[in-house]
Amino acid sequence: MSTPILHHYEFSTFSEKIRTALGAKQLTWKSVDIPGMPPRPLLTPLTGGYRRAPVLQIGADIYCDTHAILSALERFKPNPSLFPAGQEGLARGLGFAWERQMWVPTIGVLVHFIGEHIPPEFIKDRKEGYLGIDISKAAMAPQFEEHVQFVRAQIAWLAQCVTAHKYVLGDQLSAADLACWQTIFLLRKNCPPEVDALLNLGPILPWYERIAAIGHGTHSVMSAEEAFEVAKAAKPMPITHIAAGGYPEGISVGSKVSVTPEDNARVPVVGTLLACDAFNMVIHRHDDVAGDLNVHFPRLGYTLAKA
Ligand SMILES: N[C@@H](CCC(=O)N[C@@H](CS)C(=O)NCC(=O)O)C(=O)O
């Protein structure tokens, strides 16, 4: 099986979640640095248009969204597991709920502190191609108090978990930790130290530092061109993790479908449905240059429709 290739950019906090997962699993991986906003001319043909970061590539298999990526890494190297036995559902659902609820309030707090340094073209891209809202400091200022209250209330229950045990679900690091941690990482990395008091982060700092110390595993740089060549030379792997017959919503395998994020960056990716269960969807795409590709998405957060 070929080496995992992560397409990501340094200041992407969802990418930091995956870099840390790669570290927790002590994996060796290739790092492709992508721009912080489109165009991403050698990545888009691999994903079929999915525009968010990060994206994981293993040969000609392309994994979109951190939730599909974590599941792929778990299959690639099961131990140490990020889905503790008996708590798989919690690890999955809690992480998803946290990120869905926390993303905009976190950005609200972030831009309060550093908004004046964000270039106008970035604000424009995030409004027009990603979040659909104006994330400039001025536009988010009226909701600042509300966002702070929201984040503090979430941190309060997180603190109950991670002061009672080492990690959110107990003694073992899980996907839920990585999801909660990454939004706080974005703030602590970029805001002045006063953000700790503002959000009452004190009680969670030992947990925060424990995860920050995990690192990113062993990685080396790969160019986008080299990653593209890897995809071109490879064939998608057989799908062994999804049982046949679990077709959702009356859409059968072999149908032409679109898969679209339901929250933001709503660019549909079109292909042929290969497999689908309650957790994962795989579509096949043929790119004129890259060849045959299997593109993987989580079910959580994506809409599957007949194309
Ligand atoms: N649900 C997605 C969210 C990913 C996400 O929103 N990533 C941010 C970067 S931290 C992004 O894609 N921003 C827009 C972009 O880079 O084009 C996931 O878990 O991967």
What do the pLDDT scores average to?
A: 97
Biggest beta sheet attributes: 10 strands, mixed
Bound molecule kinds, no repeats: glutathione
Helix content range: 40-55%
Oligomer: single chain
Q: Distance N terminus to C terminus?
A: 32 Å
Q: How would the blueprint of this fold be written?
A:
Elements: E1 5-8, H1 13-24, E2 28-33, H2 44-47, E3 55-58, E4 61-64, H3 66-76, H4 88-114, H5 120-130, H6 137-140, H7 144-164, H8 175-190, H9 194-198, H10 205-212, E5 218-221, H11 224-233, E6 256-261, E7 269-276, E8 280-287, E9 291-298, E10 302-306
Parallel strand pairs: 1-2, 2-5, 4-9
Antiparallel strand pairs: 1-3, 3-4, 6-7, 6-10, 7-8, 8-9
The chain binds glutathione.
Glutathione binds near residues 53, 65 and 130.
Task: Explain what this protein looks like in three dimensions.
With 307 residues, the chain is an alpha/beta fold. The protein has 2 domains: 5-80 and 218-306, Glutaredoxin (3-Layer(aba) Sandwich), CATH 3.40.30; 88-212, Up-down Bundle (Glutathione S-transferase Yfyf (Class Pi), Chain A, domain 2). The protein has helices spanning 13-24, 44-47, 66-76, 88-114, 120-130, 137-140, 144-164, 175-190, 194-198, 205-212, 224-233; strands spanning 5-8, 28-33, 55-58, 61-64, 218-221, 256-261, 269-276, 280-287, 291-298, 302-306. Strands 5-2-1-3-4-9-8-7-6-10 form a 10-stranded mixed beta sheet, with helices on both faces. Strand 8 and strand 9 (291-298) form a beta hairpin. Helix 4 (88-114) packs across helix 7 (144-164) and helix 4 packs parallel to helix 8 (175-190). The structure holds glutathione. Glutathione binds next to helix 1 and helix 3.
